Amino acid sequence: MVHQDCKDLNELALKGFDEVQLAVNVSFKQFQDKNFVQTVANIMQKMDIHEGRLEFELTETTMMIEGQAVDQSLRRLSELGIDISLDDFGTGYSSFAHIQRLPISVLKIDRSFVGSVTTNEDDATIVKAIINLAHSLNMQVIAEGAETAEQVSFLGKNRCDPVQGFLFSKPLTFTDIKALLGQEDFVDRRIQSVLALG
Residue 55: what are its φ and ψ, rounded to 5°? Predict the structure, then answer.
């Protein structure tokens, strides 16, 4: 899977998108493989994937199981220049102390909070707290599942970093992504959309 992801990155680079970062979901099963990190390192070296082009997403559950072994793997992956993100943050069992000592660079706020951020005061408070926590630990924070302009406006006002969700796009295949990036006015249209929401 990582091999195909790196292949896709190189294909985008050939089309002029050499700054694109690809997020890859990593499972607990992959971390159980003692050769996983070395395999990733070999693939990156062979395919000349530079620092910052790959992001590995894992859930809080994966992070907490087999704690020490996962911790060591995450540190080694981070040393390879791979960003580590914690997906669905707020729904699991990780402690702030655990998050602080791991090489996590991104917290992704679970869509269950984002979906009601403008209608539920408690969820709004939680989202604000997560954003402040992430920034205080020098992490980026991404909100998942934005579906309305009001949600995006709330997140922007509270200094959330990137926002993703159906408001911007449904999930796309790699073929669809290439076609979208190939449209000459793609960047201009996306910038105008964000400004209109702001």
Answer: -130, 130
> What's phi and psi for 15, nearest 5 deg?
-90, 5
Per the CB < 8 A criterion, the answer to whether 182 and 15 are in contact is yes
pTM confidence score: 0.83
Summarised one tens digit per residue, pLDDT across range 133-164 is 899 989 999 999 999 999 999 999 999 988 88
Alpha helices in 15-95, H assignment, sequence order: 28-32, 36-47, 60-64, 67-79
The pLDDT score that the predictor gives to residue 67 is: 63
Domain ranges of the chain: 2-197
Four-point Cα dihedral 83, 88, 89, 91, nearest 10: -150
User: Which pLDDT value is given to residue 189?
Assistant: 44
Q: Which of 3.90.550.10, 3.10.20.310, 3.20.20.450, 3.40.50.970 is the CATH number of 2-197?
A: 3.20.20.450
Buried b (16+ CB within 10 A) or exposed e, 160-185: bbebbbeeeeeeeeeeebeeeeeeee
**pLDDT for the residue 166:** 84
Is the predicted pLDDT of residue 77 greater than 90, yes or no? Answer: yes
| Rounded distance between C-alpha atoms, residue 145 and residue 42, angstroms | 34
**Alpha-carbon distances, residue 122 vs 71, 130, 131, 147, 169 (angstroms):** 32, 12, 14, 19, 27
